[in-house]
Known about the structure:
Layout: H1 3-10, H2 13-32, H3 41-70, H4 72-97, H5 108-112, H6 121-129, H7 135-153, H8 157-178, H9 197-216, H10 219-237, H11 249-265, H12 271-292, H13 298-309, H14 318-334, H15 343-362, H16 372-381, H17 389-401, H18 408-421, H19 424-437, H20 442-461, H21 468-482, H22 492-499, H23 503-516, H24 520-537, H25 546-560, H26 565-579, H27 586-601, H28 612-619, H29 622-636
Helix pairs in contact: 2-3, 4-6, 4-7, 4-8, 7-8, 7-9, 8-10, 9-10, 9-11, 10-11, 10-12, 11-12, 12-14, 13-14, 13-15, 14-15, 14-16, 15-18, 15-19, 16-20, 17-20, 18-21, 19-20, 19-21, 20-21, 20-23, 23-24, 23-25, 24-25, 24-26, 25-26, 25-27, 25-28, 25-29, 26-29, 27-29
Amino acid sequence: MPHGLFRRLSADGRLLSAFAVAFLFAILVAALSLMPDRDCIGTATFVAAWATALILILFLYAYRRALVLINPLRQLGLVVARTRREFRAWVRRAQRAAPLFTEPRQPTSVREAPIAPKPDFARTAYFQVNAMWTESAKQAVRYAMSFARRYAEQGDHEVSAVAMKAIVDMNAAYVETKGRTFFTNPFIIENPLTSDDFINDTLEHLRQSARIAVSRGDEQQIEQTLQALSALVGVYAGIDYGTPRASKKHAHLAVNYLAGEIERIVPQNMPDVLMEGARLMGQCANLLLAAEGPEGIRTLVQKLGVIGCCGVMKEDYHPVMSTFVEQLARLSFDLLPVYSGEVKFVAEEIRSSLSRLARLFLALPDTALSNMHSTFLGPYYSATSIQALSTRLAGLLNAVAGAKADDKNAQQVIYNIENWADGLYRTEKELLLEAIKRRSQFTFDMVNWVSRVTSILLAVSNAPACDGRTRTELRKHALCLISVLSFVPEDIETVKFIETFRMTETLFDAALDAHNRNCQGIAEDIIRLLVSWMVKGGQYQSGWAIIERSIYGLAVLALASAAGSWTTMLKTEIAKRLATGGLPDQSVRDNAALEIRCRAATLHQHGDGSSSIDQGMARADRAILRPLLEDLADLISPGTAGQAASRF
Length: 648
């Protein structure tokens, strides 16, 4: 053990007292044998017997006390307990000395300002006068750090973990002792009181411990050090700076130490440690988000994105990258219930980090069997995982949809969702086009994610707590997001590739969902997107029957409108597209028209089918659907009017 702690424990009062009392009892027994009076023999014998028994008891007590003192866990407990007692003593002294220190007078405007800091000037002045009051506590931290390093080197990580916890406990006691005597840097002006020697000393010890552990390749010690830094972030985030808007300077300092050590671990080929570091950074971000708001996590979001990118090119680090994506997805969701006007900017920062990371990862080769891109980017973009962002958004939607119109919490969440969705289409467009370019199976996730989030935004716009302005903005963001699908390149290979992920069905489902949610304007715009896709993807013999399936879907949507009001709009839109050069290959149009008329004539022979378009046709009124399909077929190929493809 450290020499200073050895001196302290070797002077243990209980152990020395037991020895002294046993020694006195021994002298008493020896003295009783010298009594000359025979009448006192019985009393002397009785006292000697009890003294001998007490000597034995004291020896046993001293033995057990010695075992306690040499137990490293107990030694650490004694160090923490002693430090706490000393801190409490300093608090009492500061309270007694408070009347001796006069608070400096401030202008009335400063005293009455709601955001003006209100520190404990008396205690601050007392601690400045007694500048050495933390020396004993600093020494205790050094003792605990010595235990952590020594026992980690011996492989006894149980003791080193307790030593790290002791450091955190002593820092918590220190923060409680100082109370409102911490300061943060005000705007522009530098405050010399913001620096804290005790906190700086602790963080430096942990930094050195991490470096030593890295040099030895001790992953457990590294993780324990990172966990201690993360715990200190929570301790420092609770510091009271005397004003609710103060920046959590010391928590940010600990976060910088944590992120710096995690960055230095990247070249060491320690994926498990990096994954733990990613989770710890996510936990720290949540603590700062709760303590300081969205503006407090910008640096961590950037660090998460940068360190996550380091795991792209190394196969062993791919699970690490997935962990970083998971943390960014969770932070993106955790922003939504926060009362702050900074949600939009931090959400953009998160999307930017994710987009940069995803584009780098999409550059790696992917196959349908490995599905690597979807697996590791799934925590954010998956449409099937119960832990993905879209699933969490759906759960939040259920809570908001059931709230009353005057529910302030629901109104704030809806407002934050609107801010979160503002500009969302930009990064999603880039990623979709990149996934298509790379022919990645991740395209399926992007198409479904765009569709599902569009549906969620429209559903939120119908919540009772959503006001008129926010409703308009949400629907505008939803339209911008679903319009991302219109930027798909129109070469034949891309058309074949994207249709394997049910592009036609996706647009149909999105339009029908908008109609069912009473967003008629949005539904009409999505119908136009479906017409555009029909013209773009149907110009080739791709083998996916895009023209036919688009016409079936458009006909079902037209019948879903009130009194068929979309029928005229649909015919006008198709005619306009054809007039401007859409579907230039007449043979493709003729074949599609013949197939459509054949399907119209045999509607009764088809069941529900597996696709949503087939199911919509099965539920539609055949007496109305059949002539509409024939009219649309004639519009595409007037030269084959009245003709239908043969099934034989």
